[in-house]
Amino acid sequence: MEQKGPHSFKRTNMVPTVLLPVCMFLLFNIIPGASSDSKPITCEAGTFTNGEPASIDCNFRTNITASELGLSVTKFPSDAPKGDTGEDVLLCRWDKEQNKYDCSIEMANYVFDNILTDHLVVRIPAVSFEQAGWYKCYFVPTEEIDPYPCELRVQARPESTSTARPESTSTGEPEESQAVLPIVLPCVIVVLVGVCIAGLVLFMRRRRANRARKSMGMELHHGSKTTEPLLPDEKQQVDKLSEVFQLSLTSLQKVVNVLEQEMQAGLHSSTQRSADTGMFRTCVSPLPTASELGYIMVFQLRSDWLTIELVIIPSSEAACPSLSFSVQKGVATGKQLFDFIADKAEQFVKENLTFLKDNRKLKKEFNKNPLQMPVAFVFAFPCKHETISKAYLTKWTKELDWKDVVCKDLKEMLQQAFKRKKRLNNLEIVAIVNDTVSTLVSAACSDPQCKVALHVENGLNACHVEYFNTTGAECPDAEKQIEVRPDIIVFVVVIIIIIIIIIIIIIIIIIIIIIIIIIIIMLVFVIDVVVLGFLVIVVVIL
User: Fold this and answer.
1) Which runs of E-coded beta strand occur in 210-363?
2) What pTM was computed for the model?
3) Exposed, middle or buried, 75 (CB in 10 Å: 0-12/13-18/19+)?
4) Distance in angstroms between the alpha carbons of the first and the last residue of the chain
5) Which residues contact 394 (CB under 8 A, 6 or more apart)?
6) Which DSSP state fits 64?
7) Cis ω on the peptide bond leading into residue 314 (within 30° of 0)?
8) Which of 78, 244, 451, 471 has the fewest CB neighbours in a 10 Å radius?
9) Residue 172: what pLDDT?
10) What angle do CA 532, 536, 542 make, to 5 degrees?
């Protein structure tokens, strides 16, 4: 390696090193292909809108922790004179006793999380115009290495009102814009037809609703803040209609009794299949008391999102690392799904290994390789449990359908995916729970009296504490989970017919446009022939 470029003198045992009579010095790696005067430290900012999140990314091109040098991020105003020393945003010093960096934010409205190998990031939750300017990242005290600056620009939020565009004339327009007209015109016509159909449907619905209101003597007065008092006969009709929705205490008690019966039927193996309310045992007992100690890696799969988080119990002051990923559309099988989860788990471990090793509570566990960590899998779909860590998926919901996962052991499938990754083959799944169960467990830590959890999203799910001993029903076959409803078939047929009609209309419009274009071309040709003939006659006469 050529011994050119900036040098930072320090005592180290890293490679490459050059032994001197007095000390050793570390060589910064220059980017391959760069010139010998390339600067090793760079930063990235960019243009952000006022009030939105922003960030400043410093890349030191070397292992920061191994350098044991101080760090600083300095801000320079956009109009600062040459030679201005600027203001420090972030200062970090190397603590030799603790063998880690001690960092502090020197200016308000900046946030610093952690140092990752060769770079650090300073975040701005809501950027303002005062934070615009130039930024530089330094090794301290080696400020003679002049780093690349980066400019953070802040722009105002766009106005909500639209500005009128000047009218364009046909003169001077390029021929390409005119050629686009035959392509755009059918699309515009289709959109207009769709808008007209939607407007007609809304008009018919509004008309039927108004007729229904008039028939009951309750016509609405749109646009008025107050309504006229009802006549005695109108009030009598309103009271008669509202009586249907007024339930007595006796009726409410009947609702409670029926719901309790259905819940009990859903819990017993003999009646679970015929019950209207699906109930599943979770094998979670007892609830936590907030006196527990430990750590766990949590995987949460909800709809098409995967979240991975490290949870330390009790919670520490430092924020625990967390990452979220969108499940890729290319995931077609259950094996690919669990391989995707394992890939993201490996990425999570790789990106947060510094945090894991530096945390005092986890230092002993993470000094070993491969990684050893208990895992909880929050699986927001109906499952039958044999134990708290062994569960079988009964059916998919929320528009997901990987059939090779139904009635399979979720722990075994995920554990096999972990074993296919060298870094993850010692992760152990200790719990598989529903998202409502995880909510109840979390709430019970702060309030021991909490016995019910409720989730209202795409559907309505709940869990509660039940003191009894019963066994759930067996996992049904995957084929039996598919129900063909007549109303769904009718809906699909109607949609297909509408799509066919729209395609036919588009084809007809395209044919009409082509015919019009041919007619125009023929007319132009005829006019040219007539004009040419007229000119020939004139020339002959002259």
Assistant:
1) 294-302, 305-313, 322-326
2) 0.40
3) buried
4) 90
5) 280, 382, 383, 384, 406, 407, 475, 476, 481
6) H
7) yes
8) 244
9) 43
10) 145
How far is the CA of 492 from the CAs of 483, 498, 499, in angstroms? 15, 10, 11
Residue 419 phi, psi (nearest 5): -70, -25
Write down the pLDDT at residue 268.
78
- Two tokens, residue 4: 């050119």
Beta strands in 30-132 (DSSP E): 42-44, 46-49, 54-59, 70-76, 87-95, 100-105, 111-116, 119-124
Q: Please, are residues 313 and 441 in contact by the beta-carbon 8 Å criterion? A: no
Q: Which pLDDT belongs to residue 487?
A: 53
Q: Categorise residue 378: left if φ over 0, alpha if ψ from -120 to 50, beta otherwise.
A: beta
Q: Give residue 212's pLDDT.
A: 52
3-state SS class at 452: strand
Q: pLDDT value at position 38?
A: 45
Q: Are 490 and 484 in contact, with CB atoms under 8 Å apart?
A: no
In the chain, count of helices (H) and strands (E)?
11, 22
What pLDDT sits at residue 485? 44
- Matching residue, tokens 């207009």: 192
Closest CA to 28 of 66, 61, 70, 58: 61
Question: Which H or E element spans position 198?
Answer: helix 181-215
CA distance 416 to 406: 17
- Rg of the chain, C-alpha, whole Å: 35
Output the six-digit token pair for 475. Answer: 């996992």
Return the pLDDT at 516. 93
What's the CA gap between 268 and 257, in Å, rounded? 17
Distance CA 149, CA 151 (A): 7
* 375, β-bridge pairs: 297, 429
